[in-house]
Amino acid sequence: MDIDFVNRVRDRIECMRVRPLLQSFLDGELDKPQRQRVAAHLEACRRCGLAASTYESLKRRLGRFGQPADPDAVARLTDFVDRLADAPDGDGRDGTG
Ligand SMILES: [Zn+2]
Q1: What is the number of domains present in the chain?
Q2: Residues of the domain holding 44
Q3: What's the gap in Å between 39 CA and the centre of ligand 1?
Q4: 61: part of which helix (H) or strand (E)?
Q5: pLDDT of 89 strictly over 90
Q6: Which of 26, 30, 53, 72 could form a disulfide with 34 if both were Cys (CB 3.0 to 4.6 A apart)?
Q7: pLDDT top residue among 86 and 49
Q8: What's CA 84's distance to the chain center, in Å?
């Protein structure tokens, strides 16, 4: 059994569990155990870390005008971030791996 494959699958499962929690995490709505779990994953997983920081800066931008975010815009952004997180690795820029 390829241990690398197993690890990869496990990472993907954790990503799927963590991603729906990202927004609540950034809004500070999670319990402590959940928060710690998401935080730990964000440190370990570059994609989810990237998704989290994208959410954060988008939120900041949307909140700047002091009005509730347009749900339609939020849905589109969420979709965008999801696709970002699903994007395959290896665009060749990262030489150190
Ligand atoms: Zn992840």
Answers
A1: 1
A2: 3-86
A3: 11
A4: helix 46-63
A5: no
A6: 30
A7: 49
A8: 9
